[in-house]
Here is the input.
Amino acid sequence: MNSDSLVTDLTLTMPQTPATPQAQVRFKGEEGRLLLLLPSETESGSALTWIEVWQQLKQRLNSGERFWQPQTPVHLIARDRLLDGRQLQDIADALSNAELQLKRVYTSRRQTAVAAVTAGLSVEQHSLLTHLNQTENGQALAEPLYIQTTLRSGIEIRHPGTVIVLGDTNPGSSIIANGDVLVWGALRGLVQAGAAGNASCMIMALRMEPTQIRIADFVARAPESPPNQYHPEVAHVSGGGIRITRAIDFAKNQLTNDLV
Amino acid sequence: MLLGVENRIVYTAVEVLAGECRLDQALVKDKRQPNLALLPAAQNRTKEAVTPDQMKKLVAALAQSYDYVLIDSPAGIEMGFQNAIAPAKEAIIITTPEISAVRDADRVVGLLEANDVRRMHLIVNRLRPAMVEKDMMMSVKDVQEILSIPLLGVVPDDEKVIISTNRGEPLVLAQEGSSLAGIALNNIVRRLEGERVPLLDLNIPDDLLSRVRRFLKGSRS
Here is the structure.
């Protein structure tokens, strides 16, 4: 029943790179408003430049705008990122194009606070060690990230939870998630589920033709010769390697396993 | 160079922006087409000599007197590319049907989307129908599958393109209907203008062998 349509390759040593919450631009709903979280400048190791932050913001805006009510207030959590007046204005403009309103800025940098006040935004300034960093201690996964877009070459999505993509993921793109990865479309790029080490995570796609898939420490790549036809498939870890099962069979197996 | 006007260039865009000459002094008019003019970019200076904001101003000035302003983007996604897309309202993505080229094009489409250039069209260049037939080259459908943007046209690989660029005589101005690539380019322009022109039939005349091959392929799936 299990079709080993992927070549599992355990000889590869894989770097453990869990998707930290601070790594990328992220939106988060909270009590009727949206929080826009910017990656930290110092903590995440490789600091992102403004251009990268900007492109991530635009990409997240473009791929999720269906879900936001018009005129939802947005609170910008800038952490220790330095933003000048022009960058704040760019963010406000991008948000208002998506019919969102930038209302408030939280920052730990004095210069950012001054720039925000000058731009006429309300500001809350606090030191680095506040409630915003408490997420580091908790082990709970973040809420799932839902994106409706084609993930194109060069785009990397890192999310400390489950990622759902409505669209294709193209060769050259990558998704690194601490939870499951569901692709409602063709999976052609690199996908890693359970990046923090959870081997019970799964990868699901309507059309599984990946460059490479990883679950926790396991790595698998696509076979040299592509299959004749594609079915919706599920990749999961069992018996010391990544296995690919047709979605229909997988559901049946899971059910029987639960009964035993 | 391709228009054969290289020897008539006096000023470039950089000099216009520096205020060293007027815009119309830098424009080089084509001798065959009175409505076609070229604004050369500086070859000697680096692309960082121009900023995206300056490009916007320049193109806004040009748009007052011309129907279409075509901005030729340099290869890659560096500063020159950022300059080229800053004033753009729509984009035409030109790619050859090769995996590496399509991968680059995919990245460019992503960056254009991020910069709010939403209207995009695809031209597949240098297609060789005979190779596609034998499964040795990506088909137009394969390219579209990845890029998922509307198709504007397909230009077949044609020796005449190389000859015409070497001579500096645009292919489309050569005798009407003399080359398949020229017709394809003309059709692309007509489609841009809103006309509905069917895609050219690029298939080579059927011989027995290719018919047998197609039959076999059909029965396999």
In short: Residues 30 and 89 of chain B are 25 Å apart (CA to CA). Chain B is about 40% helix and 10% strand. Chain B touches chain A through 16 residues (CB under 8 Å). The first strand of chain B starts at residue 28 and ends at 29.
